[in-house]
Design a protein that fits this description.
About 35% of the residues lie in helices and about 20% in strands. It is α/β, with parallel strands linked by helices and about 350 residues long. The chain folds into two domains: about 1-160, Rossmann fold, CATH 3.40.50.2000; about 175-335, Rossmann fold. Helix 1 (about 10-25) runs parallel beside helix 7 (about 145-160).
């Protein structure tokens, strides 16, 4: 059976769709699964166990200049790649006009069907074309976790029960800093501090695209100092000049801290997988930490962890919520309660 998953963006949403792919493979071991995704997130989809082919597009960029020669040429190439194979099932997990367009353009095998959402779920976007394009539009509970929504949609489309086991299937590769083209040590940050006294490195994911999801700088500095005092080093990833400056501000004066250089998404995934654990705000990188099954505490300023945070099945991850923001003590106690790997 050939199945096409349509989940274009964003980073966290792509991660949340991965368990649905693992469920399909468990129910249909011989399935051939392809995935359509925004090019920026393609390296992550390529790391999802069981995905045969990733079809990358630049829909976000193309819509800024839809009639330019470059866009028309790139769109033609994307369409040809999309229609290279015929599919028995095309499943739109996004529920937007752009994902509905992709699902509609995909080529079906004789008897093939398109599946999509019939309704909006709380806190998630939904646009009517997603329902119109689908041969079968599936109604889901209005209050549904992002992971559960994708899993349930695929299960109903392909006629199997959602399994109790939860697996993201995100595959990290052995960390190779030379191949990545920068000077990180094999275990990021080992050039600082004493190796024999180090319990491990904890990544502090402070960056997020929304300012109202950020945690105060003073909180990060106090948390980092507590980690150092407890024998952990801290590593600080970033994705922009502003985040790089924040990372340096957090690291200032710490005995064991390293600001990572800017890394590609696949290199960042591999580097993160070497860490003892992660503490971070609600962001795509925090969701990658969950998918890697790292010990992880996710910080929420809004009561939305029920929709995007770690699920109850996630043994090594938890969320902390408070308004206007969780205290350092609350996050620290949560971290102390997270069981380590192995």
């Amino acid at each position: 059976m050939k199945i096409l998953i349509v989940k274009l963006s964003s980073l966290g949403d792509v991660v949340h769709a991965m368990p649905a792919v693992q469920d399909i493979l468990r129910a249909l071991p011989d399935a051939h699964i392809d995935w359509v995704v925004e090019r920026g997130f393609a390296p992550l989809a390529q790391r999802c166990r069981g995905v045969r082919r990733v079809i990358a597009g630049d829909l976000r960029r193309w819509r800024k200049a839809p009639f330019s020669h470059e866009t028309r040429r790139a769109w033609g190439a994307f369409k040809a790649e999309l229609q290279r194979d015929a599919y028995d099932a095309v499943i739109d997990l996004q529920g937007l006009t752009k994902s509905a367009l992709v699902a509609w353009l995909a080529r079906l095998s004789p008897g093939g069907q398109r599946y999509g959402l019939a309704n909006q779920t709380e806190g998630s976007s939904f646009e009517a074309p997603a329902r119109w394009v689908a041969h079968q539009a599936i109604t889901l509970p209005a209050r549904s976790h992002a992971v559960t929504r994708s899993r349930e949609l695929c299960a109903q489309a392909l006629h199997y029960r959602v399994p109790h086991e939860l697996s993201f299937g995100l595959l990290a590769q052995p960390w190779n800093p030379k191949r990545a083209g920068h000077g990180l040590a094999p275990e990021p940050g080992l050039e600082t501090g004493r190796r024999d006294a180090l319990r491990g490195w904890v990544a502090l994911v402070h960056g997020t695209s929304r300012a109202d999801k950020q945690w105060p700088l003073a909180h990060w500095r106090e948390l980092a100092q507590r980690l150092n005092d407890a024998g952990f080093g801290v590593v600080l990833p970033h994705g922009s000049p502003a985040e790089r400056q924040t990372a340096h501000d957090i690291a200032q004066g710490l005995a064991r801290a390293q600001v990572w250089p800017m890394l590609s998404l696949d290199a960042l995934t591999d580097a993160l997988a070497t860490c003892h654990g992660v503490i971070g705000v609600d962001s795509g990188l925090s969701h990658i930490a969950v998918a890697l099954d790292l010990p992880h505490v996710q910080i929420y300023n809004f009561d939305t962890a029920w929709r995007t945070g770690p699920l109850a099945e996630s043994i090594r991850q938890c969320s902390v919520f408070a308004r206007p923001t969780p205290s350092v003590d609350a996050v620290w106690q949560a971290w102390l309660g997270v069981p380590p790997r192995g």
